[in-house]
Amino acid sequence: MRQQCSFTISNPFAYKSALLKWSKAFPKVIWLDSNAHISKYGSFDFLLAVGKQTDKSISLDSFDPLKRFVGEKQDWLFGFFSYDFKNQLEDLDSKNFDGLDFPVLHFFQPTKIIKCNGSTLQFLYLDDCSHEIEEDFTQIGALMDFDENDEVHTPIKIKMRIHKDAYFEKANKLLEHIHRGDIYEANFCQEFYAEGVSIDPWETYQRLNAISEPPFAAFMRFKDKYLMCASPERYIRKQGTTVLSQPIKGTSRRDGNQTEDEILKNQLALDEKERAENIMITDLVRNDLSKSALKGSVVVEELCKVYTYKQVHQLISTVTAEIPLDKNPVELIEETFPMGSMTGAPKISAMKIIEGLEETKRGLYSGAVGYFDPEGNFDFNVVIRSILYNATSKYASFSVGSAITAKSDPEREYQECLLKAKAMRSVLETGE
Question: pTM for this one?
């Protein structure tokens, strides 16, 4: 079904930019980039999957056909689950405003996949287009020396969907739910948006990615809809019979002074409120994975470990489990979606409450982008620190959130949201 061919390249970093330029010719694009983060759980340095408008490859927009395709281990599939996929899994709904109009889910069988590990570039093409490998390799290489004219960036005015006073009011309502015992944690999100704007998604993504260089960056084009994602968070990965999830809860700013930065890092590691947030969600993830795990196989490999990125320090936990050989991989998504760090706990109660307080549908934000491979393995990120764009309606959006717990101070949570929004706002407002 696919032909494979490998090449050795001398400058993988320069090749990344050339690949993104080359992808502009395709209506379906998914780009995944680890940004050179070293991890024992990584599968590649970067990867591009593209689909043609007229090709004969498969597109899937509903859950049952996806489950059948992956269960039969037919080929690679790339795509996304939006947050509102939750409504197909539980007795939930979403009636809030949606300015982006992304599908609930979409997966496609790529015509062409190009994957890089170290200095090895691997082409995996469907048989019908395998004769194009050499020509594509040459075209992509030529783009490494092609400098596009820098366009003058037009500043974009960003609006807030929830203003500060309203945020405090809603955060206090969540605290009332917590103090009543309805929930004990909720991830409350707010949208920033711009209407009637035109942006270059490829350039916007590259600027956003350069700010933080996170381990789960992604760019996606689905016809007229775009995702520019600088996510630091993995939702779930399956490799063989091992499943892994890495929830993030706990954020601190960086400081340019090394001594001060180390103090901030240590403060985050010891912060009782931040650790409590993380431990609650880690326990939720453990419970989610235990639905399919072999008895006694769920293990918390790392609890509240501080990971440092260019803009922030984060508390991350790592949970693994072993699953039966005959388990359909898509069922693992069904049992764990959406990522607990983006909902709260108990999960369903938290989702119902935050749906009533948030002003917009989350759509792809806090959903997941990734792939299934022919062996039934998969890897998905959490769509956060991301700009979403509908080119037809000229609507651009990014959302941020923070965890509300019994110890939360609404002012501190609000400032955490502004910290998380900083990179996206900077890219859109100033082009930097």
Answer: 0.95
